[in-house]
Amino acid sequence: MTSASTGHPSARTLGELRASGHVQRSVKDEIRNNLLTKLRAGDDPWPGIVGFESTVVPQLERALLAGHDVVMLGERGQGKTRLLRTLAGLLDEWTPVIEGSELDEHPYEPITPAAIRKAANLLDDLPIVWRHRSERYSEKLATPDTSVGDLVGDVDPMKVAAGRNLGDPETIHFGLIPRAHRGIVAINELPDLAERIQVSMLNVMEERDIQIRGYSLRLPLDVLLVASANPEDYTNRGRIITPLKDRFGAEIRTHYPLELDDEIAVIEQEADLVATVPTFIVEILARFTRYVRDHPSIDQRSGVSARFAIAGAETVGAAALHRATVTGEESAVARVVDLESVVEVLRGKVEFESGEEGRETEILEHLLRKATADTVRAHLGGIDMAPLVTALESGEPVVTGDRVTASELLKSIPSPDTTTPVVDAVAERLDAADGGERASALELALEGLFLARRISKEADDHGVTMYG
Fold first, then answer.
1. Cα–Cα distance between 230 and 242 in angstroms, integer?
2. Residues 380, 449: contact at Cβ < 8 Å?
3. Matching InterPro entries, A to Z (predicted)?
């Protein structure tokens, strides 16, 4: 029976819970059963995860079905944390807990002394509340100053001062992992934890008990422990100690998107765009990112995060919005000219190999031009640009820039009788509907002609660019 006002089951006491036929399951059983249910129904258990469908996801699903704790290894910006956070969606939507219990214990199985006493005294009148699955996922960014008390627990001096014996288990203030009882705890950048702190996790992962300041408190903790790490952190900042690595049932390697379409999908999904950014502009940024990752001047151990391309798309959108605001343009649509702002903004997101000092901007500008040329060939190949080239040779140059509106750009095209069919063909090929998108498509064509050395391009110090 479910409460109509809250969405969770209506049982309020242990007796009502038993009468409802509720069955207790461990966290790993919950995840296993719910994952199997989604797979049988053809539902996607991993919403928002792109590019891992045939590589990482099958490995993770097998690990969860086996009931293993998991460590995800991969370079920065590969979606490790995003993937771990989706695990909460595989928990039961609502689960009962003893009201007021410190560790959200199940009414059928109290584990702390206080909850055990309360259950023994109240029996079927034991009050319960319901926890949503979103409240059962805990996350900790590992930092060198993380203490054993943060993760496992420590003696609470306030409780000792209140007169309790130092050896009393109820003097313990529990840390993050015990408080994640009956849930999922994720530790990001695990190698950043000092080795002595990692040692404190050994008993929690294997024997499921905790030891604090010489006192061993046997708690049948029910947690799924997951972690993320950069493989290079094993030598750069720290390492996962061998006994702890051994206790993780599965070690899964992540990767950057293998296909261009997946790279584009990640950008479109994650970028918070303040203006219209045509798909071909996003494609240029995706190709640019992939070229940067593969370039020998880039530190491959550091990687190039997906946030690199996402920030680029957001920067291009902001440039378009800025132009629309200062010129009074009706709609803000990103154009190729807006890509000029990307290199300076993104340069700090890339780590270059030693010896490349002073060449960073040159390298990135070259790769951006290469990405643009590839996009032009992919989308505009086969269109006869000769009438546009001829018109530019005999007429005035086409002027664009960060203060030139889309309508001004389109009006500046010479010999409209002969060039309009070319512009229409380009717009149709790039699905450009309104004036802003047509101007953006035309600018891509002009940049392609320049990169193919069929026309010239000049830019001044005031943000004005001329194709002619």
1. 16
2. no
3. P-loop_NTPase, Sigma_54_int
CA angle 306, 303, 363 (to 5 degrees): 90
Numbered ranges of CATH 3.40.50.300 in the chain: 14-253
Residue 240 tokens read as 């996962």
pTM of the entire predicted model: 0.86
Strand pairing class (250-253; 70-73): parallel
DSSP H/E element including 70: strand 70-73
Per-residue pLDDT of the chain (468 residues; tens, 9 = 90+): 454 445 678 889 999 999 999 999 999 999 999 999 999 999 999 998 999 999 999 999 999 999 999 999 988 889 899 999 999 999 999 999 999 888 899 999 998 888 888 999 999 999 999 999 999 999 998 888 888 888 887 776 666 556 565 555 667 778 888 889 999 999 998 888 888 888 888 877 776 666 666 666 677 889 999 999 887 654 456 688 888 888 898 999 999 999 999 999 999 999 999 999 999 999 999 999 999 989 888 877 777 888 899 999 999 999 999 999 999 988 899 999 999 889 888 888 888 887 777 788 889 999 999 999 999 999 999 999 999 889 888 888 888 988 889 999 989 888 888 888 999 999 999 998 888 999 999 999 999 999 999 999 888 777 788 888
Two tokens, residue 89: 């969606």
DSSP class of 173 = E
Helix (H) or strand (E) holding 128: strand 128-132
d(CA 352, CA 299): 5
Please answer whether residues 336 and 443 qualify as being in contact, where contact means their C-beta atoms are separated by less than 8 angstroms.
Answer: yes
Contact between 204 and 180 under an 8 Å Cβ cutoff? The reply is no
* Maximum Cα interatomic distance, the chain, rounded to a whole number of Å: 96
Contact 80, 262 (CB under 8 A): no
Q: Which of 221, 141, 133 is nearest to 177 (CA)?
A: 221
Strands (DSSP E) contained in 176-305 are: 183-188, 210-212, 215-217, 223-229, 250-253
Q: Which residues contact 404 (CB under 8 A, 6 or more apart)?
A: 323, 327, 337, 464
What whole-number distance in Å separates Cα of residue 261 and Cα of residue 162? 62
DSSP class per residue in 292-344:
HHH-TTB-TTT---HHHHHHHHHHHHHHHHHHHHHHT-SS-B--GGGGGGHHH
Q: What CATH number labels 14-253? A: 3.40.50.300
Distance CA 29, CA 27 (A): 5
CA dist., res. 391 & res. 178, Å (int) = 74
Q: How far apart are CA 242 and CA 132, in angstroms?
A: 35
